[in-house]
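quick one: zinc ion bound model?
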Amino acid sequence: MKRDWLLCDFHIHTTISDGTLDLEDLVDFYGLRGFDVIAVTEHLHDEETLKKRREEGKATYSLKRDTFDRYLEDLKEASRYAWREYEMLLIPGVELSNDTKSYHIVVLDVKRFIDPALPVEEIAVQAREQDALTIAAHPCRKEGGWSEKSPLWREREKYGRIIDAWEAANRREIYAEVILSGYKFVGCSDFHKPEHIYSWKTLLYAEKNVESVKEAIRRGYTALHFYGEEMERIILKSSTAEVR
Ligand code: ZN
Ligand code: ZN
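yep, here:
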């Protein structure tokens, strides 16, 4: 297979955590829209956050240590379906969602459980040991003053070297400061429901296989691409699929 510009979304949630589409519907949703690569990245909260949410009577939807392997099995099956039906690559991922310390890190091509309560340095080490890739999720999100309280961006001098790539765009927000800092970057939907498809995506110059995709992100063969409603109309028109 030769390298080409691939339409990718590396940050997606389903009903397994707090998204609205189930895994199979999600694959159909992206497959019909002609995506080349997607990553399913469900929330995995730290114990402290879970405890707090329970005390506040809020829903807990996090992946768990003892069901993590099962989750990966489900993704493997979905990945086979995605390839068979749409020639779309589905990469297993997780969003380590540490709300206690205000950082979310997407791990791509995850193979084993990683405790989201670990320090960022240790998360990066464990990800590297399993040949997975780390992406700082929404590091400069304006909503809720996230960028001021998140150590990832505040202490970027330290973390810039150990995190593989940064979201320079999340949903409709764009973080020019990430690109100007020279970090490797991607743009992602942080998809939770169908309307979130209208958002920033990544165009990646790679072969359509997991190793090539990871290598292209590490090397920065990326471009930001805004996927809007017009774009969708053109793509769906060319498929016989029914519009959701
Ligand atoms: Zn997040
Ligand atoms: Zn997310």
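The first strand starts at residue 4 and ends at 12.
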